[in-house]
Amino acid sequence: MSTTKWIIDPTHSEVSFKVKHLVISTVTGYFRSFEGSAESTSKDFDGAAVSFSADIDSIDTNQKDRDNHLKSVDFFDAENHPKLTFSGKIKNEGGDYKLVGDLTLRETTKTVEFGVDFGGVAGDPYGQTKAGFEIEGKINRKEFGLTWSAVTEAGSVVVSDQVRLHLNVQLVQQQVEESVEVNG
User: Fold this and answer.
1) CA 41 to centroid of chain Cα atoms
2) How far apart are CA 48 and CA 88, in angstroms?
3) Is 71 helix (H, G, I), strand (E, B) or coil?
4) 3-state class (DSSP) for residue 165
5) Residue 9 in contact with residue 170, Cβ under 8 Å?
6) How far apart are CA 127 and CA 147, in angstroms?
7) How far is CA 157 from the centre of its chain?
8) Has residue 8 got a pLDDT over 80?
């Protein structure tokens, strides 16, 4: 059986999150620096092992003061916990893809499940083989130690506990390793 290794192409990928602000609007943020890989033994990526990390210091919500607050001890504590990490597997259940694994933030690890839209595999004009995925899911930020909370005079929550994650990921095939079985 052969294993194919893939790595994230950061120029054709993005990692974003959305959270409700004051219950009436949504703030979108991005992790601008990230890396990841997948190792698969099947063309449909069923059972593929996935690893991913994002640099907390790369948070970008298009507002510097908010970014600095998110990096502070009130939220991610980037100085002491510089990375978000994930490790898991892709499951293809009759064309219904899921990504299940362990997400770690602030030294707290929880098993999470994300929906996956597998876009397929294609060759690019430069001879590279690429695979595309759109990944979506939700987490409760407080379960990962991001517990800062505030309430307005009217009683509205400033930042929702629920965070929606959205990743558009393009992988580049790296190599094919042949496993040889030896019968003794």
Assistant:
1) 22
2) 8
3) helix
4) strand
5) yes
6) 47
7) 26
8) yes
Cα–Cα distance between 93 and 140 in angstroms, integer?
26
The strand pair at 34-40 and 2-8 is best described as antiparallel
Alpha carbon distance 142, 148 (integer Å): 8
Tokens read off for 180: 């040889």
* SS3 per residue for 26-62: EEEEEECCEEEEEEECCCCCCCCEEEEEEEHHHEECC
DSSP state of 155: S
Sign of the CA dihedral with 19 first, then 85, 37, and 94 last: negative
* Alpha-carbon 122 to chain mean position: 22
* Cα–Cα distance, 134 to 14 (Å, whole number): 10
Q: Do 135 and 164 contact (CB within 8 A), yes or no?
A: no
What is the average pLDDT value for the chain, to the nearest integer?
87
Q: Is a pLDDT exceeding 70 seen at residue 151?
A: no
**20 - beta bridge partners?**
26
